Amino acid sequence: MKTLTKALPLAVSFFFILLFIYASASKILDFENFQMQLAQSPLLSAYAGFVSYAVIIFELLIAVLLCFKRSRLPGLYASSALMAAFTVYIFLILNYSDFVPCSCGGILEKMGWTEHLIFNCACVVMADLAIAAGYPLAPLLSNAVHSEEERNQNYRQRRAGVRALALSVAAALAVPAGLMTALFFSSEHVMTKENNFTRRFPHHPILEQQSYDLKVNSYYFAGHHDGTVYLGNLSSPFRLFTIDRHHKKMDTLNLIPATNHRFRNLRYVLQEKILYAYDGTVPVIYASSIDSLKNPLFEMSVNDVYFDQMVPLSPSEYVMRVKDKATQRAALASLSLFADPKVRIINSVLTRKADGGFDADGRLLYDAASDHIYYLFYYRNQILQFDKHLKVTARMKTIDTISTSQIQTTVLKDGSKKMSAPPVMVNKEMTAYKGLIFNRSNLTGKHEPKEMWKRNAVVDIYTTAPAGYWGSMYVQNRGKNAMSQMLVTDSYFYILSGNEIVRYRFAQTLTENFIKGGSRKPVSE
Fold it and tell me: What are the pLDDT digits (tens) for 31-85?
């Protein structure tokens, strides 16, 4: 028994010395990758910079403590605490995370997360047994040599020692478990409310399935319905193109407006089986059911309002971006064909700056499933949510830190304003679908390799009910061409890249948790 008492702490100490030295050395030799993997952790994203250094230092410090007899017991306590923290971390990852990140490397890199959990539990048990074996309890007195009073005193001392041992071991387990849990909730708060621009990249949120060569790069997404994707072409304004659900066949539909206008920028958008054609520089809006596209497109509105962006809410209701002549600012307007007046302009919601509209530049979106209108700004990290009456119902943010547009303008002799320096573009391309906003970002976050940005576009995904950041995904460039547009359906993520349209299948977690099943684990601003 005495031999075991001496041998067990020593043997366990040697095991942890090897484990921690190897683990810390592996992290140091591939520190950039280790730090990046921590940044992908749903629990540690917000503290990846600090934690990456702290873990290595703590592992090396424990290894030093275990090398010497006098500090071996504190080293074993520290080993138990650290392995307990790792165990709680894995438990939270497996049970409370929307996605499971990569292993952080080292000796356990090839293990799955469940194997990690079992290994860590075994390490905690080993450390606690070594602590118990090496804990300085009062020696057990023999009945033959000592009196009953001495034996009772000895018994009380040993019982007090066992209680102290139990409490110290429990503290070594409870304190790191509590700290890790607190870190989890704190990290969630920082990532969703006070984000320090650290992205999360879940495993393979999309998987490439098929691509189709369109031959030219002038196409744009008009919409989708029942598995069919509809495309417009800037070079063929009176044609609509469709790609079937098998992504193998392309058809052409010839469209005829019911009235004649000199169109400058005729475009199409499909919403709830209604195809809309519009050109805000004329201005005119047409509409037709997709079941009767062989007939001329019916003119819904003409000369009601000039606009540069438009989203249809119904055949009789529209929201558009306009320029308010009175203030010379970009504004939002609603067009209701059966109201009096038809047009209502809200001129202070996008910007208070009369800078030629640059500060207010962005994208107008409509999500028919949630019945919300969104406006995402190109040059600042803001998203506005509106109801049909253009009342602001929510103010959200993208995860970057640029809240004020970094734009320099110059007034020309004719009074017009031009940009005098290239602005910092924050958001490049956006779309909204069933309570999610997909935004192609233009800014690199912390711990993101530059090489990945050279080969991919980065799309950030946001929930809207309630509002918050879910995660990001890489969309690989097609040769020298990056993604220019995107389209989202229940099961697929489509992009246009150069001459190609590419279809990706969504991972099950994203499809079930959000697009099909509504928001799970919501995060708020």
Answer: 877 877 777 666 666 677 788 889 999 999 999 999 998 899 899 999 999 999 9
Residue type, 216: V
Residue 248 CB coordination number (10 Å)? 9
Q: Which amino acid is at 276?
A: Y
Q: Please tell me the pTM assigned to this model.
A: 0.70
Summarised one tens digit per residue, pLDDT across range 223-248 is: 999 999 999 999 999 999 999 888 88
Pairing of strands 219-225, 206-213: unpaired
Contact in structure between 77 and 168 (CB atoms under 8 Å): yes
Burial class (CB in 10 A: 0-12, 13-18, 19+), 91: middle
The token duo for 175 is: 């304190």
CB 141 within 8 A of CB 156: no
Contact predicate 354/329, CB 8 Å: yes
Q: Are 127 and 78 in contact (CB under 8 A)?
A: no
Question: Which are the contacts of 262, defined by CB distance < 8 A and separation ≥ 6?
Answer: 282
Q: Which residues pair with 458 in a beta bridge?
A: 474
Chain-centroid distance of CA 116 in Å reads 26
Contact 371, 388 (CB under 8 A): yes
Give the Cα separation of 52 and 308 in Å (integer). 48
Contact 286, 276 (CB under 8 A): yes
Tokens matching residue 112: 């799955």
Task: Please choose, from the candidates 488, 444, 468, the residue with its C-alpha nearest in 3D space to the C-alpha of residue 42.
Answer: 468
383 vs 31, higher pLDDT = 383
Residue 293: count of CB within 10 angstroms of its CB = 15
What confidence tens digit (pLDDT) does each residue in 401-443 have?
Answer: 888 877 666 666 666 666 555 677 889 999 999 999 999 998 8
In whole angstroms, how far apart are CA 305 and each of 237, 271, 437? 21, 21, 28
**224: which strand partners?**
229
